Q: What sequence folds into this?
């Protein structure tokens, strides 16, 4: 997957979500998230996280951060790669991915849609072995100035 990131990302909101780490490129992490698009939903979406301090390791984490949008190439092909390792019923079919900056790891959380979607997934299919997904997708970052 190739992601184009502008030097100034337009912040459109703030969100809390479960992040399943897949691969790093410098300070940028490609992660997988399941969100609740409707009650009981568990739609998969890729997310980019700027992890300046390397706080997100190979384990699933809950993060909170400012959200922007970036463009990516090769998204659908990468979902197919992950579907070889975990069950993905439905995924977000777009080349626009959310990017999260100014992130913090959250210990206590409310059930926002980014969190509830993951819990819906786990209740149906069980926990995801994150090491199974580690580095299955190559992340290429193009920072636009």
A:
């Amino acid at each position: 997957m190739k992601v184009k990131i502008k030097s100034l990302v337009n912040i459109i909101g703030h969100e809390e979500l479960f992040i399943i780490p897949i691969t790093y490129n410098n300070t940028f992490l490609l992660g997988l998230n399941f969100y609740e698009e409707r009650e009981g939903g568990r739609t998969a979406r890729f997310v980019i996280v700027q992890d300046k301090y390397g706080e997100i390791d190979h384990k699933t984490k809950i993060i909170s951060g400012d959200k922007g949008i970036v463009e990516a190439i090769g998204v659908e092909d990468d979902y197919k790669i992950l579907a070889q390792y975990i069950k993905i019923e439905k995924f977000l079919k777009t080349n626009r991915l959310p990017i999260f900056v100014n992130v913090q790891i959250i210990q206590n959380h409310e059930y926002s849609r980014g969190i509830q979607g993951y819990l819906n997934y786990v209740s149906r299919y069980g926990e995801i072995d994150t090491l199974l997904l580690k580095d299955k997708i190559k992340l290429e970052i193009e920072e636009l100035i």
Summary: The CA atoms of residues 28 and 50 lie 5 Å apart. The longest helix spans residues 113-125.
